[in-house]
Amino acid sequence: MKDFFSSLCVCLFFCFGLLFNRVSSQTGPERAALPPRGWNSYDSFCWTISEKEFLDNAEIVAKRLNSKGYEYVVVDYLWYRKKVPGAYVDSLGFDVIDEWGRMVPDPVRWPSSQGGKGFTEVAKKVHDMGLKFGIHVMRGISTQAVNANTPILDVSKGGAYVESGRKWFASDIGIKSRSCAWMHNGFMSVNVNSGAGKAFLRSLYQQFADWGVDFVKHDCVFGDDLDLPEISFVSDVLKQLNRPILYSLSPGTSVTPAMAKAVSGLVNMYRITGDDWDTWNDIVSHFDVTRDFSTANMIGTTGLLGKSWPDLDMLPLGWLTDQGSNDGPHRRSNLNINEQRTQMTLWCMSKSPIMYGGDLRNIDDMTYSIITNPTLLEINSFSTNNMEFLKIAATTKVSKCREQIMKWHFRYLKPSVSPILSLTKCADSNAVGWITKTLDRGVEKICWKANPEHEYQTPLCLYKRGSRVAIDKEATTRHDQVELLSSRTSAVDVCLDATSKRKRSSEEFMRGSFFPCSRHENQKWDLYSNGTLGNHHSGHCAIVKTSQAKGSPTGVRSWIATGRGGEIYVAFFNLNDVKTVISAKISDLGEVVPGKKLDHSSCKCKEEWSGREFGVKSGSIGAAVESHGCAVFIINCSS
Ligand SMILES: *[C@@H]1O[C@H](CO)[C@@H](O)[C@H](O)[C@H]1NC(C)=O
After folding, report:
1. 258: Cβ below 6 Å to ligand 1?
2. 36-91+103-138+223-382 falls under which CATH superfamily?
3. Is 459 exposed, middle or buried (0-12, 13-18, 19+ CB in 10 A)?
4. 530 lines ligand 1 (CB under 6 A)
């Protein structure tokens, strides 16, 4: 009888506990009600950040940014890797794992983790600062755990996972053929159809909750690396945990709105591009994809126990490191002030999560003023009807009409968008277009077709080196196997290389993917008679993309949104290399305000960056926008 009562008590305790957990997590405040905002360590420390560096940054977030809505501080990848000679992003065997094959913070870089405490102390300090604590986690299980064949923890029982009368191990659940494309040696998917695979993932996320984690950035499960079963299962686990944890997916290489629709309800934010770094081309590449996600109504749609947000990636501003680097922050952002404003403005107009990437110990006043601009942060959090706006006019003839309202005239500009190299499947008909031309002294160049849509554009040409004839297995066709140089005359030969040497996967943009020639397979290209150019290592083919907008004046873009006080926000972006006057009619802006006819004579307008205020008697607004810069108008009209 005594036994019966005690087990009844245990059961009641346990069952009510479970019930309470479920209820408390599902009735808590809506998760990610606004686009999440915070700081992430990747752009400034790559993987090498230490506990002190992290907490120093967190303290600055608390002091200088928290009042502006910056809330999450996130440790990016490889916090479990020992920072010793030989360790780098895709090295194998340098990670600290526990007896259950789970990652443990490197105790040298994270001293407070010693004694099995994991991130408990760091999370506590972050919470005491009034902030929330986030970590990065890779897909599935580490190769190191699979090689060590660690047992799997059953968190519901507290011991090894047993099923069908036997203990289960890491090698039972790791799927070697599904390693992470951009971190081949590091991690692989787990079989979530097996009880043991589920138990392993549960043991990870339960531990994160026990540590006090509030945000998980789950990497190498989305975009080209899509692993929907793992995302779905992790989402379920997060739903059941007693701790609200925001769920973020990364990176978003080749993500389409259709793919995003499969995950948006399971997560709180998901990347829609590959990694963004501090180059102008990286910013430009976001305009089209961001527009596509707003058109598909994906901004702030239903997410995991709250909302979900398309994520344009961190802001690489201020004091940074380089992709894949083992060195900490050591250089300024390459973006000039106009480009930085453009990035912040696009990110805010499209309500992307804002995660600052620079080392805050070394933030300059200009960068600080951009990332804390009150109007942009208001737009980021509270605007609605965010979309690309096409009815704009542009002209580069600015000499006689500086900073004044423009006459209405369309003028198509000479495109100045640089070509972007990318990889696609070789069977894709879009991959056809490489033409060989023989130059003087036996030098051959291969050029991407001059695109008739962009008649002004110089075709992208590369130069052949080490050409040899290769014959296929059936000995029926032959093709040219070459390395490709970006220039005939540079001091050091640099070759087109299909590895990106950065945190992203093979099909992503390859801008700047030229590295010193190494005779590696990644630098060998097969030029087929059908005009495709295949990479020896990846098996994918190279294509050249441009980011031209259809239906809007070339080289300029505009976004529009409405404010919570009835104001209209309009941003003009100048992607051209020359100053451009961009303008729009007030009557056309009215179409984003359902049922509201705008009487322009009543409108007052302010341009944010210049602080200029003016009326709009002529019925249109305009500005001469610097190259790569933007103008942001706040328009108030009484109706
Ligand atoms: C071009 O040829 C290569 C090699 O034979 C083949 O793999 C590829 O699918 C072809 N692509 C197209 C678009 O015809």
Report:
1. no
2. Aldolase class I (3.20.20.70)
3. middle
4. yes
